[in-house]
Amino acid sequence: MSGNHVIRYGGRLLVYALTIWFVASFNFFLIRFMPGDPLEHLVGEEDYLYLTTAHPEVLAELETAYGLDGSLFQQYRTYLFHLARGDLGQSYKNGVPVLTLILQRLARTFRLILPAVVLAGALGIVLGAAAGWKAGSRLDRWISGISLVIYSIPGYCLGMLGLMIFCFWLGWAPTGGISSGGLTGAAYAKDALWHMALPAGVLTLSKLSYNIPLMRSGVLEAREADYTLTARAKGVRSAQILFCHVLPNAAVPMIAVYTMQLGLIVSGSMMLERLFNWDGMGLLVYKAINGNDYPVLQGSLLVLTVCVVLSNLLSDVLCALFDPRIRDGVWDEG
Amino acid sequence: MKLWKRFFGLALCIALMVSLAACGSPSEEGGASPDASPEESQTPPDAASVSGSEVELLNVGCIYEFDVESPYCDLIKYLSYDSFMYANLVRYDANNEVVPCLCERYEIAEDGTAVTFYFKDGIRWHDGEPLTMEDIEFSLNLWLNVLKPSVALRYMKDVEVLDETSIRVNMQSSCAYVFLRHMIMSSAGCVIYPKHIWEGVEDLKSFTGKEAMIGCGPYVYESYDSEAKIAYFNRFEDYHEGAPSVKRIAFHLYESPESVVMAYKNREIDCMFQYAAGLAGVYVPALQGLDGLDIGEEVNLGSPILEFNFKDTLTQDLELRKAVYSALDYELLAAANGGEYCVPGGRGVISPGNIGYAEDLPANCQDVEEAKRLLDAAGYTDQNGDGFRENRDGAEMRIMVSPAYSASKGTLYQRLAEVVVRDLQNVGLNAYLDENVSNSDAWKARFSQNKDFQIAITSCSQGVAIIDTVNQGLVEKAGSDGTLTWNGTNDTPEYVEIFSKIIDSKNPEEYAAAADESQRYLAEEMVAISLGVESMFYPYNIADYTDWSFRSGNGAFSYDTWFTLKIK
Amino acid sequence: MKGKWRKRVWPLAVLLLTAVFAGQLAPWDPWEMTVPFLRPCWAHPLGTNDVGQDILSELLYGARTSLLVGVAAALVTTAFGSFFGACAAWFGGWADRCATVLINMALAVPSLPLVIVLSVFLKRSVWNLILCICLTSWAGTARVVRARAMQLREMGFLRSCRTMGCGSLYTITRHLLPNLKELIFTKGILSVASAILTETSISYLGLGPLTSKSWGTILNDAFRAGGILNGYWWWYLPPAACISLTVFCFLSLRDGREKKG
């Protein structure tokens, strides 16, 4: 069966590599096929306008520096070569390498979303299982109903509500930011948690509302499966059926859902970051839009894609580890 | 066996979940118990401080970024306008008049083609090195030769060191006075550099770190907390004009005006620093309820303006421009701009508070009948009965109104443009909103490169208003080096001559007189129309501190405040 | 069950009618400017915004933009996605492999940032926004349809088609896709909801179409002009509620459909 494995995972890796290459090329061609001189996008209009009239020789130097001289193919090769070395260019706002900027912000975004994904994952399994196991009951109706309602509210609207209630009315939460500054040790940790509570809470809620129905339908399916029927016929106790048969079968596929969330959520937390002044990826992209900082914008898109790809990869690995059907290659998860 | 393994795994899962929930809950509880929050424990220890004594720590809010430790950082750049960490040779006083700062005095040559700066002995850099004339020569030459996209180039010719304590800057024309006004607010990186640090630096922009933060201004850089976004500065004990009375300043960097207002509410900040952009009038209701806070109203010296294209055959016509002037609803335009904190501007375009403001010119007001009469008289009538007026020759007439692209104020321009379009349609002019300028490139192309707009809704920034008046953006004039320096559309000789008087003024009096003359021309010829004079707000804490000083248009966090502020 | 489904449809019908007859229903022209910052009163049931435009009328016109973007984008994505998925499954082999690679690639590109980058570069109009949404969201439908079509492919009636020598296009459009209509419909409804969400998010970030009214734009105006800070709830709660309710209606429509199926 190992040949099968090689083909399947080889294929996956190929798709991931292709995706990254595609986005990288998209970035390259987008800026070159826009009307006007690509340098104008890269240098910034004000400097560009000044330089074209007063110092064209500086522009020529910059052209070489940005790899904009030569044929399109040569430029493309230089671009990919730079990319392979992790050179995403420089923010033209402050000349800081884009990669440095992004990695710093990415760490902060993860600090926000990691607890949210874990918490939403754990609670999703518990609540989803409860709803699915008692499907049709009052408990189920409440859980499913509320999660549907929350699912319908976009994250930033939920964030606005949270900000309005907990910050403006009750004054419990800070208005935003990551920490208050000037603190160390335990006081710092407490302060950081206090700042994190509201945005992470909102993010958890909106992810939870996504997880619950998934887990619920998983449990529902497992509850009606043949093996459950067999167990029931053998006279196994209800609790044992739930914990030994239904839950493991329903929960393992959720691993894939959670890991994928980790990748996609990075882009999803963008709106919340603007709202809560959380200086992560989202805010970086938002500011890049407003400042027309194209290198940062495109670098971010690429890095976010890499995030999704990595999380997919993680999901593949974890599924292969935890799901015996995939591990032994007897079942194609489609 | 397998069953046990699964059970074990599950138990592990549950244990993990429980521990996570336990870890997660403090974060929720943390939100629920603000009384234990660090805000409280962090409030400055006022108990020890005595009335009238020096200020230990001033918390300042602003909406800048501190992305690099270098003069190119946003915060440092704007602080340099006020000689904060890097000192300027000269600075603005409370009324935006030029006064000496790093230099002891300055002298403008009789013909205005040179300015000489004289310095005191014993001025030191933050690292203890003495300041020499070489430092200043080095810096000004950097501006001239390396920092090319700099306003200084428009004026400067060369720099001459005269002796140990004086230096002369020669100009390309007789514009020394305006050069001084300009150099205070020059572009990023145009600061006085310590030569001993920067001499060997190849790429100025990428030289960062503590060394790049050594200046000779009244405040010394200490550190930046990138997570909490607070930059700390301490006073410079050896500052040549004496140490400031505020010992330590913390700049809290925020993302939006909303956050700044909330910070005032939470008492995180005592005042704010934002170059030419205080809080808008919409935040006043939220600020008024706060005790111990003066809302700090200042008039924005710049203003949104409507600009006619003098290269366009239609808007070249004075009668049409006059009709447009009469057609606009200035009350609504002002309301759209700043609610009740904005009033219609004057006919002379320049806002009150600027040097040379002509008080006797009337305020803008709407007169629809007059507009219609002017158009009828000028021969723009509706010939085909479609409700819109045609050109004199009967051809279709359309007027494009282009709102400037701007990340921060774009929506405002767009809204103003919508009002203008509506008002023009009301008098039978077929105006429409230009939807092709939705990004900065398209806007730049239309406004400065192709100049194919008809009516543009843009603004005169406070900086421009202070340096060389609103005319700077309207006039089309080459600099003394022959390149196009003032990239407006109006190159009428009469207008260019008036503008040249402003640029070539040799002292404040000549500057004011030329500014006055330009307003009368603007009012007569309708080169542009002011769309409102707005108030901005720089709130400051009057409960704990006293003796604030102000700079016109820039609020309470001024150079003078650092030296006068005391505990109440 | 049928009655219940009908019950779930009528709010959407109301919404659709509102969007179509916004011009007749709105008490004011939403672009007309009167007195700014009015509190709710008889003339302006939801007050006015920072340039004195009637918020209620803005909301009614906003329904138009949101529905237009939602439905148009969903139609295109669903049509293209299901056809693509069905083709991939029908032809199988290398065609299928290539299609799967394409689908998986499209799924791995984070859609919101891509839409944002595109909308920064493109001219801001409703149609470009729809185009951006379509570019990023067809893959989900294609994947689901392909998976189900793979199962159907081996069924009797489709095999007969093949042996009878029917053309591929004919079989796909006449036999394969009609048998997937339940699935496609559910997926289509989901696409409407997510397209509406994307549109409002983009408008909320201030990158939406310049002149048309949208719920996201109202939220952005309220956020920008201090509406939230000053507690003008009548300005920002209604659009937020509209967005949420619309998405809720579409989602519950799907749920009703799923249970029925």
Descriptive report:
The complex is a heterotrimer of chains A (334), B (568) and C (261). With 334 residues, chain A is mainly α. Chain A folds into two domains: 3-84, no CATH class; 98-333, MetI-like (MetI-like fold, Orthogonal Bundle), CATH 1.10.3720.10. Chain A is built from 15 helices and no strands. The radius of gyration of chain A is 25 Å and the shape is globular. The mean pLDDT of chain A is 81. Chain B has 568 residues and is an alpha+beta fold. In chain B, the strands form eight sheets. A five-stranded mixed β-sheet of chain B has the order 8-9-10-1-11, covered by helices on one side. Chain B has a five-stranded mixed β-sheet with strand order 17-16-18-14-21. In chain B, strands 4-5-7-6 form a four-stranded antiparallel β-sheet, covered by helices on one side. In chain B, strand 2 and strand 3 form a beta hairpin. In chain B, helix 9 runs antiparallel to helix 11, helix 10 (330-338) runs antiparallel to helix 12 and helix 15 runs antiparallel to helix 16. Mean pLDDT of chain B is 84; it is low at 1-48. By secondary structure, chain C is mostly helical. Chain C has a single domain, classed as MetI-like (MetI-like fold), CATH 1.10.3720. Helices cover 74% and strands 0% of the residues of chain C. Chain C contains eleven helices and no strands. Chain C is elongated and about 75 Å long. The interface between A and C is large, with 46 and 36 residues.
Secondary structure topology:
The complex is a heterotrimer of chains A (334), B (568) and C (261).
Chain A: H1 2-32, H2 38-43, H3 45-54, H4 56-65, H5 72-84, H6 98-133, H7 138-152, H8 155-169, H9 185-223, H10 226-234, H11 238-268, H12 270-276, H13 281-290, H14 294-322, H15 324-327
Chain B: H1 2-32, H2 38-42, E1 58-62, H3 74-80, E2 90-92, E3 98-100, E4 105-108, E5 114-118, H4 133-145, E6 156-163, E7 166-171, H5 176-184, H6 195-198, E8 219-225, E9 230-235, E10 248-253, H7 257-265, E11 271-272, H8 284-288, E12 293-294, E13 297-299, E14 303-308, H9 318-327, H10 330-338, E15 342-343, H11 368-377, E16 399-403, H12 410-426, E17 431-433, H13 440-449, E18 455-460, H14 462-468, E19 476-478, E20 484-487, H15 493-503, H16 508-525, E21 528-530, E22 533-537, E23 540-541, E24 545-546, H17 559-564, E25 566-567
Parallel strand pairs in B: 1-10, 1-11, 16-17, 16-18
Antiparallel strand pairs in B: 2-3, 4-5, 5-7, 6-7, 8-9, 9-10, 12-23, 13-22, 14-18, 14-21, 15-22, 19-20, 24-25
Chain C: H1 2-20, H2 22-25, H3 55-91, H4 93-108, H5 111-121, H6 126-153, H7 156-163, H8 168-176, H9 181-204, H10 215-224, H11 233-260
Helix pairs in contact in C: 1-3, 1-11, 3-4, 3-6, 3-8, 3-9, 4-6, 5-6, 6-9, 7-8, 9-10, 9-11, 10-11
